[in-house]
C-alpha cells in the first residue's frame, strides 16, 4: 500500500467525457423483442413453418406440373403415388396442386380479414377512447348491438344481397361485424394509455386531437394490436373453412381448404387421404399462428424488458 | 404594468364520485402569482394540488371560478386564442417514465410543441432542439435516442426542454423531483432556478417535499382537502406557521441531524386525512385539530390576512397569530 | 453483545439479455441483537437487493446469489437452508415490511385473516387464539378499534393503516430481526412521522433488531444506531449516525448530505449537485465506482479499488483520500458550515 507513487494522488477532478461513456450498449426496442422471440423455440419453429407454408402456397402449384383445375381422366381417386404426390380427387384433379391453390384463398382471407378488422377497430376504438364521455357511450353501444348479431345470418344475407359467393363477399361478410371485438380491445388499451402523462403533455402543448391519436396512441397500442392480429388470423381461416364446408363460402371451380374438406367428406371412408391433406393444412396453419402469437405477446411485452 | 401574471378566483374543480357524490378536488381556491416569482404549493397526497395546477392550465375544465392569465380570463378561450395561451403556459410532470412517449425519439418529443406553434423548417428545428438540449445540460446527440435509454434525471431534463420549446412565460412544475434520487433532485432544482433567472420564468411549484419547496419558492401555499389553508412568504411559513395543519406539517419534516430531535417538541396529528368525498363541514381540518370548537363545524373559515402578506384560514388565529385554546 | 446476523462477501447478479447486472458486489456486515442498522443510497445502489438476499427472496433463475456469499443468521447458514427451514426462518426469525403497503397485502382477504395466517403457520395457534392474538397485534401497532378493524379488507384502510398492518404481520411471530424496505417512501410526511415513531417505540419495547433500507438520510438521522452508505453495489462508508452526519469522509456521503437544502441555505441559492449518473452495474469495475462523478478524483481512483480503511471506532470508509499520501481536502459540505461535534 505504501509503494504507490505520489503523482497518483494529484486531484484531477471531474472528467466530463468519461461520465457519459459509462453506459451499456444500447439494445433497441425491436431488436430486443426479436432477440426474445428467437429464444422462444416454439415460436421460432412456428415462424419457420409458416414461412414454408407461405412459400409453398406461392410456388407449390408449379412443382407438381398440374394445374389445379386440370382433370386427369386416367387417375380418378388415385392414392398418393409418384405421379400425384397427394393423390387425386374424384374428378382426377391433383390434390397437391389444389392444396396450395386453396391455401392462397384461405390465407388471403385470414390475413386480409384480420388486417381490415384491425384497421377499422383501431380507428373506431381510438376515437371512442380519446373523446370518452357521451361519444364513447354511444359508440360502444353500437358495437354491442353489432356484436350480438349472429354472423351466420350476416353472411347469408350478404351472399343473397350481393348475389355472389367470392372471396370479397366472404371477407366483407366476416369483417362487417368482426371489427367490433377489435374495437373493444383497442379502446381498453387506449384508455390505459390515455392516462399516461405524455398524452397530457401533448394536450398542454396544444397538439390537435387527431394528431395525438395518430402520433401517440396508435403507435403505443401497435404491439398489442399486432399480437391480437396474429391470434385473429386462425379464427378467420377457420371461419372461411367452416362457411365453405357448409356451402356458404367459396364456390367451385374456385377452391379453398374448406371446399376441399367438404367435397372429400362424402368419400371419407374410401379415400381418407382426400380429407387428410386439407385438414392437416388447416390445423397446422392455425396452430402456427396461435403459437407465434403467444411468442410475440411475450416478446413485445414491455414489462419483460430489462 | 400589472405585476400579477395569474389570478385565480374562487376556482373549483369537482369530479363525480359515483352514487351522486362529488369529489371536491379543488374547492374555492384564491391565489395570485406575480411575474417572475415561484409560488410553492404543498400538501399531502389527495389534497388537490395537482388538480389545481392542471385546472389553471385548462387541462381540466373548471367547475366554477376564474383563472385570469395576464389580464385575460382563460375559461372562455377557444381555437387560436387557446393555442396562444397554451404556448405561454406549460407543465412539467412528476413521473419521468410515463411523461415521455416510449416510441418517440428525444428530438421528436422536444419538437412536438414547436410543430404546433412555430413554423420552423427541418434545419431550424434541429438547431432549436440541440440548443434546448444544451440549455438543460444534455448533449445534442441525445436527440436520436429513445426515452428508455435515459436515466430518470435525464428524462426529467427532456420534460423540461419540451416545456421550454415553446418559450413559455409560466410553467406548472407538478412534483418534478418526487420520483428522482436525492443527488439528481438537486441537479433538477438547480436547473429550474437557473432557467428562471435566465428566462424570467414564473413557476407554480407543486411538491410534497417541504424543504425543497422552501428552497425554491418565494411564497408558499398550503393545501388541505382541496382548500388553501395558509399562504405566505417561504421563510415566514417555516419560521412562523400559523395554521394548526401547517404547524404539524412543518414538525413532521425529517431533519438530517441525529441530535435535532431532543430539543424540539414534536406535534402529533390525530388520525388520517378524511376522504375528500365526505369532507367535514365547516373547517375541513377540524376533525384532526386540537383547537377545534363549535364554530369550526358550522362556518367555513375564510382566508384572511393576519399580518402583512400572511394569509390564514382558521377561526382561532387571533391578530397575534396564535391560537387561543378554548376548552 | 450478541451477534444475530453476519453477511460476508454477498454478491448478487441479475441475468439480462444485455449481460449480467452485478447489483451487489461484495457486501459484508454484522448486526447485533436489538441494533438498528440503516442502508442508505440511491435507487439501483443494491440496498433493496441486499435486504431481499438476506430473506432469500430473490427469484432464480433471473437473480443469482453467488457461491462466495455467506449469510449466517445466529448459527444457521441461510444459504444452505431447505425450503422448510426457509419458511420457518422467514416468519419466526426475520420479518419484512415492503415499500408499497397497497400491493403487499392480499386484497381479497380481511386483514385479520392475513395476520392469523402467519400466526397459525408459525406459532401453531388455533383459530380462536390466533384471532385474539391478531387483535392484540393491531393494538400493538396502534390501530384504534382493533376488534372492528380486524374484519376490514385492505381497501377499506388508508395507506398509513395498511403499513401498520404490514408491521403487525411482520412482528406477529416476534422475530429477532425486522427488515424494513423503504417503509415510508409511499406515505405522506405526517404519516411517515407516525410510522417512524411507531417503529421506534416497537424497537424499544421488543428489543427487535431492525434493518432499515431508505434513500432518505433525514429519516434515519435520529432512528438508526449505525448507517451504511451504499453506492454501485458496495458499502462505501459505514459508522454510527453521528459519525456519518458530522464526520463523513467519503465524497459521495458529502454529496448526499449537501444536496438536501438546509434551513439555513440561501433561498434559491445553488444546491450542491453531483454531476452525471451512477455507473451501469453491467460493467466490471476495478477502480473506485464513484471516480467518474467525484470532484476530488485522483489518478489512483481510476486505476485501483480503494480498500476499506478504519477512521476510528466503528467508522470505516472506502476512499483513496484516506491514504496517507493523499492531499487533505475540505469538502463542499464542510465549507457550508456544518457544526462540528467533539
TrEMBL record, chain A:
Gene Ontology CC terms, in alphabetical order: plasma membrane
Entries under Gene3D superfamilies matching the protein: MetI-like
Entry's transmembrane regions: 42-60, 107-130, 142-161, 167-186, 218-238, 275-296
PROSITE patterns: ABC_TM1
Subcellular localization: Cell membrane
Source species, domain of life: Bacteria
Transmembrane helix found in the keyword field: yes
Alphabetized CDD domains for the sequence: TM_PBP2
Coiled-coil region list: none
GO biological process entries: transmembrane transport
InterPro entries: BP-dependent_transpt_permease (IPR050366), MetI-like (IPR000515), MetI-like_sf (IPR035906), OppC_N (IPR025966)
Swiss-Prot/TrEMBL keywords: Cell membrane, Membrane, Transmembrane, Transmembrane helix, Transport
ABC transmembrane type-1 domain sequence ranges: 103-293
UniProt-recorded name of the protein: Oligopeptide transport system permease protein
Native species: Hespellia stercorisuis DSM 15480
Taxonomic path: Bacteria, Bacillati, Bacillota, Clostridia, Lachnospirales
UniProtKB/TrEMBL annotation, chain B:
Classification via InterPro entries: AAA+_ATPase (IPR003593), ABC_transp_ATP-bind (IPR050319), ABC_transporter-like_ATP-bd (IPR003439), ABC_transporter-like_CS (IPR017871), Oligopep_ABC_C (IPR013563), P-loop_NTPase (IPR027417)
Keyword annotations of the record: ATP-binding, Nucleotide-binding, Transport
Pfam families, alphabetized: ABC_tran, oligo_HPY
Keyword tRNA processing found: no
GO MF: ATP binding; ATP hydrolysis activity
Biological processes, Gene Ontology terms: peptide transport; transmembrane transport
Positions of transmembrane segments: none
Protein name from the UniProt record: Oligopeptide transport system ATP-binding protein
Taxonomic lineage from the root: Bacteria, Bacillati, Bacillota, Clostridia, Lachnospirales
Automatic annotation (TrEMBL), chain C:
Bilayer topology term: Peripheral membrane protein
Pfam families: ABC_tran (PF00005), oligo_HPY (PF08352)
Compartment(s) where it occurs, according to its Swiss-Prot or TrEMBL record: Cell membrane
GO cellular component, one term: plasma membrane
GO biological process: peptide transport
Homology family: Belongs to the ABC transporter superfamily.
PANTHER family linked: DIPEPTIDE TRANSPORT ATP-BINDING PROTEIN DPPD, OLIGOPEPTIDE TRANSPORT ATP-BINDING PROTEIN APPD
Protein name per Swiss-Prot or TrEMBL: Oligopeptide transport system ATP-binding protein
